[in-house]
């Protein structure tokens, strides 16, 4: 997995849910013909990993149709000098670490090794590694320690799964011990689903090392991950579809609309699907994984480790093993010269019994499904507890006047919406959206295909020819309106949400439900309607990745709608999502605050209900914070109180919570100066904005920036929005969020007439059916909903 420079809680048993006996300890089974003893199986697992990695590397990031056009069906090596990638080298890295410390391995050992063997070395030119590894190295070099070192955008990646096989080899016959050890290793670089993916692989290999049949290997993997996790759902769907072949397995787990392929739930699902479809046969499993594409080096490496442990090294075709020598150190120079067979031998001494950890005291093994400290039980149940019951929060009867305040005080008096504030919200959001540089690209989506293609080609030409600007009349003989200043995706998704607010108030739904519940019902209908369109588009597509959708949206929204179309419901639609952390729900949350003006807690709860369709974690926290801030401002709060209300919604231990508090502290330190807002820009750029990513769409960046600028500007939209636009990496949504909050604080009167005229009409670049929507008229309709 390389992007190079080119459901039971508390660890209880799941016997009833999986229909299986406990696999905490798998007794050794008679070896199939040729499988041999522990040493032979260990060599099969490690060599199988390396072979799968080398076979799959050329097909990485390709679709099956692209593989067929290049090579037909891959049946062997398709390059002259096959070699392993980061999958093999990181597996060697973890294997050496495990051989050194054994079952006494600690997070401190792992963190020290990352520093000594990788992070603290002069790596020279970029050698290539997965995004999760790059993010981890960036954090370690900044002085962050585990588990915070694993707080990056790819904590769910398959970077742990790709190096998990050695833990199964070491803990042969003990899947739960393998899962415990790999979680220790992964704490430095991964979290959540990234840990679960590694645990599933380690447990599966541990079971296979004891000679377990395929069904028991799969069950062992499922037993060590939460039942309602993305990894478990993906694995179960893949294995259930295995008998129907490659296309069925891909359709069951591949995330459409997501360009990167390093998702642990997806890769682990594809690997186990291939292994199950092959009945454990090595060549069949590995080649199926290779020909399904996506993160083919990792999926084939995992399938190879599982099948290699099942069948032993002698089952691997010699023509596949002969070309592979010691690691070249392409990604990890310190691993150069190490051979996977040496790692296998280190982890399984000749004198080892059939179950390599069988001599250890039984009390050292975890119960089936148990988690290391801090990772106990169901991730969705944990998230629900963390957020105060979250998405499933009960409705408080009646309207916002009857809702209890956070302190438990009597209900507030009703707060009527002020049209000037509502206009300020929508126009401030639209102005910030329009001013950010990405809006021009979003709007250009309405241009003909040939003009967009020409733009891409000219960008490439300019880069190759060291040209800074290359003006070309791409709108020649074309209407230029899409290229003119105006709002784009953020404003259109805000209007999409406003439609549900209007539906809840138009008498269509039962008035006895109360306004909040009617709004939730209207949101549900809107999301399911869109999901139906997504399902129809997917059904017409030859491959999951090829579906042509009737809208443009963030990855989180596309993935959430895909999950909804596939039959999942919130909160799983937002949890099983590669961009759960982005800010797509934050602009929607600003509009939902209109349902509960002056009542931040109820506004936050409603925003979370909506956010759970597409987000999890910081993506939900950010939505709650923006809804609370806007609701407070609608109720008369000033800038400081509105910002503090938002901060109260952000748990301190989260990235968004830490960033927001730090950003606001910086803002308030600058505030006495007359140019405080502009002076704050470099501080936010260097201390809040993450420069690892090309687009700053994470809620943990954009929401803190918006809150800080609102505070520094003292609620003045004319200062907050231009300052946000200066932060180019977060200029897609941070200006829109800052504009929404300060637009409410200053009302529409604070916006220049020129911006009002330019930003009041939607173009339909993201949601075509909204083309021509007038935000001023929409504000008038929304005002009448109270």
Task: Please summarize what this structure is.
The chain is 54% helix and 0% strand.
Give the SSE map.
Layout: H1 15-18, H2 38-56, H3 64-71, H4 86-101, H5 107-119, H6 131-141, H7 165-170, H8 175-186, H9 193-209, H10 214-223, H11 230-241, H12 246-253, H13 264-277, H14 282-291, H15 296-311, H16 318-321, H17 340-347, H18 379-386, H19 419-435, H20 438-443, H21 449-464, H22 489-505, H23 515-540, H24 555-565, H25 572-575, H26 584-592, H27 600-611, H28 618-634, H29 639-647, H30 655-670, H31 676-687, H32 699-712, H33 717-726, H34 734-746, H35 753-759, H36 775-783
Helix pairs in contact: 2-14, 2-15, 2-17, 4-17, 5-6, 8-9, 9-10, 9-13, 9-15, 11-12, 11-13, 12-13, 13-14, 13-15, 14-15, 19-22, 19-33, 19-34, 19-35, 19-36, 22-23, 22-26, 22-36, 23-24, 26-27, 26-28, 27-28, 28-29, 28-34, 29-32, 30-31, 30-32, 31-32, 31-33, 32-33, 32-34, 33-34
Organism: Streptomyces longispororuber
GO molecular function: metal ion binding
Pfam families: ADP_ribosyl_GH
Descriptors:
786 residues, ADP-ribosylglycohydrolase fold, single chain, mainly alpha, 2 domains, disordered N terminus
Describe the structure.
Helices cover 54% and strands 0% of the residues. With 786 residues, it is an all-alpha fold. The chain has 2 domains: 37-76 and 86-379, ADP-ribosylation/Crystallin J1 (ADP-ribosylglycohydrolase fold); 418-440 and 488-783, ADP-ribosylglycohydrolase fold. The two termini are 53 Å apart.
């Amino acid at each position: 997995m390389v992007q190079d420079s080119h459901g039971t809680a508390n660890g209880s048993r799941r016997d009833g849910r999986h229909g299986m006996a406990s696999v905490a300890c798998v007794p050794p089974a008679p070896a199939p013909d040729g499988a041999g003893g522990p040493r032979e199986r260990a060599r099969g697992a490690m060599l199988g990993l390396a072979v799968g990695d080398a076979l799959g590397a050329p097909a990485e990031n390709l679709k099956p149709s692209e593989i067929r056009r290049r090579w037909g069906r891959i049946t062997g090596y398709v390059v002259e000098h096959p070699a392993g990638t980061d999958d093999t080298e990181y597996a060697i890295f973890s294997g050496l670490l495990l051989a050194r410390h054994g079952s006494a391995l600690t997070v401190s050992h792992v963190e020290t090794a990352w520093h000594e063997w990788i992070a603290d070395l002069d790596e020279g030119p970029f050698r290539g590694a997965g995004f999760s590894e790059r993010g981890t190295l960036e954090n370690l070099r900044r002085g962050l320690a585990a588990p915070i070192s694993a707080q990056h955008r790819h904590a769910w990646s398959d970077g742990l799964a790709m190096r998990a096989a050695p833990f199964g080899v070491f803990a042969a016959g003990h899947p739960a011990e393998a899962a415990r050890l790999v979680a220790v290793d992964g704490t430095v670089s991964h979290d959540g689903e990234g840990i679960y993916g590694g645990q599933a692989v380690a447990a599966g290999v541990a079971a296979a090392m004891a000679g377990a049949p395929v069904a028991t290997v799969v069950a062992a993997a499922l037993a060590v991950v939460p039942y309602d996790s993305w990894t478990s759902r993906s694995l179960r769907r893949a294995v259930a579809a295995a008998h129907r072949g490659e296309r069925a397995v891909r359709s069951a787990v591949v995330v459409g609309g997501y360009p990167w392929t390093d998702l642990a739930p997806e890769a682990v699902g594809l690997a186990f699907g291939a292994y199950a479809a092959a009945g454990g046969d090595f060549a069949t499993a590995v080649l199926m994984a290779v020909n399904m594409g996506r993160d083919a080096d990792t999926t084939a490496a995992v399938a190879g480790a599982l099948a290699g442990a099942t069948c032993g090294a002698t089952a691997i075709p010699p023509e596949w093993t002969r070309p592979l020598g010691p690691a070249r150190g392409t990604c990890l120079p310190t691993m150069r010269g190490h051979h996977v067979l040496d790692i296998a031998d280190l982890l399984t001494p000749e004198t080892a019994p059939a179950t390599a950890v069988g001599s250890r005291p039984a009390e050292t093994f975890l119960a089936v499904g148990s988690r290391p400290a801090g990772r106990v039980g169901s991730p969705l149940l944990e998230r629900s507890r963390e957020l105060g019951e979250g998405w499933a929060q009960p409705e408080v009867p009646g309207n916002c006047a009857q809702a209890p305040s956070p302190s438990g005080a009597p209900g507030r008096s009703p707060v009527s919406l002020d049209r000037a504030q509502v206009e300020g919200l929508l126009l401030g959001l639209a102005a910030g959206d329009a001013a950010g540089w990405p809006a021009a690209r979003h709007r250009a989506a309405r241009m003909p295909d040939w003009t967009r293609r020409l733009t891409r080609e000219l960008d490439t030409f300019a880069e190759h020819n060291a040209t800074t600007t290359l003006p070309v009349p791409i709108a020649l003989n074309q209407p230029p309106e899409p290229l003119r200043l105006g709002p784009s995706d953020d404003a259109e998704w805000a209007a999409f949400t406003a439609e549900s607010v209007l539906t809840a108030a138009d008498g269509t739904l039962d008035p006895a439900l109360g306004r909040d519940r009617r709004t939730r019902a209207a949101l549900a209908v809107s999301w399911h309607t869109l999901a139906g369109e997504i399902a129809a588009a997917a059904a017409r597509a030859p491959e999951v990745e090829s579906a042509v959708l009737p809208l443009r949206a963030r990855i989180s929204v596309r993935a959430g709608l895909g999950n909804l179309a596939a039959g999942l419901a919130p909160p799983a639609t937002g949890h099983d999502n590669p961009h759960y952390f982005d800010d797509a729900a934050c602009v929607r949350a600003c509009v939902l605050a209109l349902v509960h003006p002056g009542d931040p807690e109820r506004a936050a709860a409603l925003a979370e209900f909506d956010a759970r369709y597409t987000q999890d974690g910081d993506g939900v926290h950010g939505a709650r914070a923006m809804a609370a801030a806007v609701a407070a401002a609608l109720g008369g709060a000033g800038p400081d109180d509105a910002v503090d209300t938002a901060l109260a919604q952000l748990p301190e231990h989260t990235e968004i919570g830490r960033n927001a508090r730090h950003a606001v502290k910086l803002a308030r330190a600058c505030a006495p100066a007359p140019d405080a807002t502009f002076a704050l820009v470099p501080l936010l750029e260097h201390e809040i904005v993450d420069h690892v990513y090309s687009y700053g769409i994470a809620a943990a960046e954009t929401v803190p920036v918006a809150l800080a600028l609102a505070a520094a500007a003292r609620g003045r939209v004319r200062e907050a929005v231009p300052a946000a636009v200066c932060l180019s990496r977060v200029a897609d949504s941070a200006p829109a969020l800052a504009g929404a909050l300060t637009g409410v604080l200053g009302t529409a009167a604070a916006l220049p007439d020129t911006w009002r005229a330019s930003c009041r009409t939607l173009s339909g670049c993201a949601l075509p059916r909204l083309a021509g929507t007038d935000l001023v008229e929409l504000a008038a309709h929304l005002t009448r909903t109270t």
